[in-house]
Amino acid sequence: MRSPGTVAVGVAAALVIALVWVTCSALGVRGSSNVPVAASDEVHRVSSLVQRIRTGVSSEEEFRTQLAVDRYAGVAPGRLLSGLRGKDVILVFVESYGRSALQDPGLDSGVLSVLGTASQRLQSDGFGARSAWLTSPTFGGGSWLAHSTLQSGTWVSDQTRYVTLVNSHRLTLTRAFREAGWRTVAVMPAPQRPWPEGAFYDYTATYLFARLGYRGPRIGWGTMPDQYVLSALQRLELQKPHPPLMAEVELVSSHAPWARIPALVPWQSLGDGSEFARLPVTKTGASLADRNRTRAGYAQSIEYSLSALLDFVHRAATPQTVVVFLGDHQPATTVTGFGVSHDVPITVVSKDPAVLDGIGGWGWTPGLVPAPGAPRWPMDAFRDRFLSAFTPGPSTAGPSPATGP
Q1: What is the pLDDT of residues 364-377, one digit of tens each?
Q2: Is the dihedral of CA 68, 71, 74, 77 positive or negative?
Q3: In this structure, which long-range contacts are made by residues 386-390, counting pairs with CB atoms below 8 Å and at least 24 apart in sequence?
Q4: pLDDT tens for residues 48-86?
Q5: Helix, strand, coil % in the chain, rounded to nearest 5
Q6: Which residues of the chain have pLDDT under 70?
């Protein structure tokens, strides 16, 4: 991983080279073969490069300034998040769960039906829910940019900003929970190599692919079905005696290309996942060459992921459980078409009325489906608003102004 210093040196070097190129062209400097060092038809192109580099440097400086201003970094651990004291807080990113999954009428999607059925069952269980929209910094990929934006409360819209962030001391949601006394874990089924950036988030424990004990087949892009990932969280953490837990979980069965969708199985049959080798898999025929099948495959994958997640909440959540689930970004334009928003749904689920009262001022829609006109925040606004809702005042300051679009 490159350090911020390396990035800065590379940008500076590129800027110098580009400026030399433009200067040579302007002066008509020629090489030993009497060939212009910089041909005139390249001047406009390189001048544009110079401007883009200057803009990038300015953006990077602005981002570093944002990182240095953190209204919650100095809050005493005893007060931080005290409104959630004793709760298990589970933050779940559902891959590619975008606004289009709920509002694109051409998707022929059963997602709304899944959410409607789950909403009735959770309500019968005593759960309440509130939902809204967040605008993701990325589209069709780059999940790590969305994860880091939500966790850090800063707008991480490209890889340069991501590298700068993970080499900083910015307070993440995970670290805020850990400083306040929670055990913090990450359940990340996708990484099969070391993940050094994970140190930035300050997890107590990290469960990557190798630590999740999966012995079944790989189905689609994801290394293991979402249902297994959730069962691993239950087995490894929740069912054991534990202090209050904050877990970040990635569900990746809805990752492109949406060609093979796993089946839901009885939870008691999951074991080490080898059961999936004997079960049928839905083959959607999704491909870049067949947009209709790809869109249908995408919708089926979101149905599966949400069904697994909400059934898990029904089975495993207690009165002390708070679940926050959201999409990381919209799916690719193969599914959405062009000109759509970067919006993703976000939902908070809890049995404790005090938790929902804590976010009562947000104006979010009751239930699992945000209304079309529900509040729409840039994703970087969530961290401070969440901390403000559950950290009693007087605060060091109110929520930071949003820095996203």
Answers
A1: 999 999 999 999 99
A2: negative
A3: 386/173, 387/72, 387/75, 387/80, 387/81, 387/173, 387/176, 389/83, 389/358, 389/359, 389/361, 389/362, 390/81, 390/82, 390/83, 390/84, 390/358
A4: 444 444 444 558 889 999 899 999 988 999 999 999 999
A5: 45, 15, 40
A6: 1-58, 108, 288, 394-403
Q: Per-domain residue ranges for the chain?
A: 4-68, 82-390
Supply the angle between the helices 159-166 and 143-152 in degrees, to the nearest 10: 50
- Two tokens, residue 259: 């060609």
Q: What is 82-390's CATH number?
A: 3.40.720.10
Give the contacts of 95 (CB within 8 A, at least 6 positions apart): 143, 222, 250, 251, 252, 253, 254, 255, 305, 327, 328
Cα–Cα distance between 77 and 75 in angstroms, integer?
6
In angstroms, rounded to a whole number, what is the distance separating the alpha carbons of residues 314 and 186?
21
* DSSP secondary structure code for residue 278 in this structure: G
Q: Which residues pair with 366 in a beta bridge?
A: 130
At 234, give phi and psi (nearest 5°): -65, -45
